[in-house]
Design a protein that fits this description.
There is one protein chain. It is built from 15 helices and 17 strands. With about 475 residues, it is α/β, with parallel strands linked by helices. Helix 4 runs parallel beside helix 5 and helix 5 runs parallel beside helix 6. Bound molecules: guanine (GUN) and zinc ion (ZN). The site of zinc ion (ZN) has 6 residues, from strand 5.
């Protein structure tokens, strides 16, 4: 009897200039962050990947082990390789309403967003929407996300199903909303609980999928539904919780009217046990000092959504103040309130929001937040956010510059960097500010290529 050998684990080599962020640089100026070991720059390196994970990271000049000689090589020499970005708050169905004119949050929801979300009751719409949305994330350099679908169970199901086929780390759960929403977008406590438990049992912990108890925001849930959501968090260890909080001043006033007994907007969630280390709360612009103390005590995070806050005119988030108070902060696109799925564009907007408050956001801080920072806040530091053996091979290759203006600016930054090795930040900051999805060459998730820039597709593969 002959034994059939197990098929070898798929292998892959990636070549390029590696940039990742092992420590939080905070709001320190670039040289201090670099000296503190927050920035790791490894030009001309090789990443060896096996079975979806990074096996080795070494200078490209290191001799290749003999049994790797025939392994496919993705040759991105001269280009940046970063860990894939983590978008901690984004709405799948809102690609239909991104860039809608002229309203603040509550009008925007009623005028554009709710009508678009109603269509997701149709399984075909949910499936096509999940496919379009996840492909769009990958084409913008995002490899992990915390996602709002719609109130319909099928919309969460479609996201889980598509993400699990790509082996993508995804956090989602059907949206809970049982009041103050139009027909076709309301659930009820009993059915919603049943749907959530079923989704948890079938998806949470399977194929990099994680369930989030997803309260849309306080106004669209009855007190009974919020209690049920808190019970789900208590009864199912390891699930996440996602919602919106203190985004817009009219919204904050409305919550105070709806919940007169609550100490604050955040307290509406806290008193039902929704705030914990796995809670991701979008915005938090108008939280008070006591709220921040509650966030810190629980290790909950704010998903700061810069392009959305500017576009909807919601306000300027005090990132440095929040962190000084011990609150964890991650970065998010919040599409369709946000105007781009590109985390780089959102970093550019975050820089401007801080500049208006007299604070300078470095590229190191922004890039750390969207990679290793978010991974740590989500409790996924062992899996995501760094280019290191053992981590999943969720990686993106980026060109330094596209277009005449970008290329010109990059050349100037390179000349400065060649004079002074400490000037890498100048180049990286210009890249962060000017680059977007047009700079993306390839996206790998668990070592599988999920996006390739069209012009590169034929020439990408070389043999070792
Ligand atoms: N608050 C409640 N729902 C939403 C939403 O869909 N987008 C944003 N930005 N805020 C919300
Ligand atoms: Zn949102």
């Amino acid at each position: 009897m002959s034994l059939t050998p197990a098929s070898p684990a798929p292998r892959l080599i990636v070549l390029g200039d590696l940039l990742d962020f092992p420590k939080d640089p905070g709001f320190a100026p670039p040289p201090e962050a670099e000296q503190a070991g927050a920035v790791r720059w490894r030009p001309d390196h090789r990443i060896r990947i096996e079975a979806g994970r990074i096996l080795a990271v070494e200078p490209a000049s290191t001799p290749l082990p003999a049994d790797w000689a025939q392994v496919p090589v993705h040759d991105h020499r001269g280009q940046l390789i970063l860990p894939g970005f983590i978008d901690t708050h984004v709405h799948c169905p809102q690609l239909d309403v991104i860039a809608s004119f002229g309203t603040e949050l509550l009008d925007w929801l009623n005028t554009y967003t709710f009508p678009a979300e109603r269509r997701y009751v149709d399984p075909a719409v949910s499936q096509a929407g999940a496919e379009r949305f996840l492909n769009a994330l990958w084409a913008h350099g995002t490899t992990s996300a915390v996602v709002f679908p719609t109130v319909h169970k099928v919309s969460a199901e479609a996201l889980f199903e598509r993400a699990s086929r790509a082996r993508m780390r995804l956090v989602t759960g059907k949206v809970l909303m049982d009041r103050h929403a139009p027909d076709g977008l309301r659930d009820d406590v009993t059915q919603a609980e049943h749907d959530c438990v079923d989704l948890i049992q079938r998806w949470h912990g399977r194929d990099r999928q994680a369930f989030a108890v997803t309260v849309r925001f306080a106004p669209t849930s009855t007190p009974e539904q919020l209690q049920m959501a808190g019970a789900l968090c208590r009864d199912h260890a390891g699930v996440y919780m996602q919602t919106h909080v203190a985004e817009n001043r009219d919204e904050v006033k409305w919550v105070a009217e709806l919940f007169p007994d609550a100490r604050s907007y955040l307290d509406v969630y806290d008193r039902d046990g929704l705030i914990g280390p796995r809670a991701v709360l979008a915005h938090g612009i108008w939280l008070n000092d006591e709220d921040r103390a509650v966030m810190r005590a629980h290790g909950a995070q704010i998903a700061h959504s810069p392009s959305s806050n500017l576009f909807l005119g919601s306000g300027l988030f005090d990132w440095r103040g929040a962190e000084a108070d011990g609150v964890r902060v991650s970065l998010a696109s919040d599409v369709g309130g946000g105007t781009s799925l590109s985390m780089l564009r959102n970093m550019g907007d975050a820089y401007k929001i801080q500049a208006l408050q007299g604070v300078r956001l470095t590229a190191w801080k922004a890039l750390h937040t969207a990679t290793a920072g978010a991974a740590a806040h989500l409790g996924l530091a062992d899996e995501l956010g760094l280019i290191e053996p053992g981590r999943m091979a969720d990686l993106c290759a980026w060109s330094w510059a596209e277009g005449d203006v970008g290329r010109h600016r990059d050349q100037i930054a390179q000349q400065a960097a060649s004079l002074d090795a400490g000037r890498l930040h100048e180049r990286a900051f210009a890249w962060m500010t000017l680059a977007d999805e047009r700079n993306l060459r390839e996206t790998l998730i668990a070592g599988g290529s999920v996006f390739r820039a069209p012009a590169l597709a034929p020439s990408l593969l070389a043999s070792a």
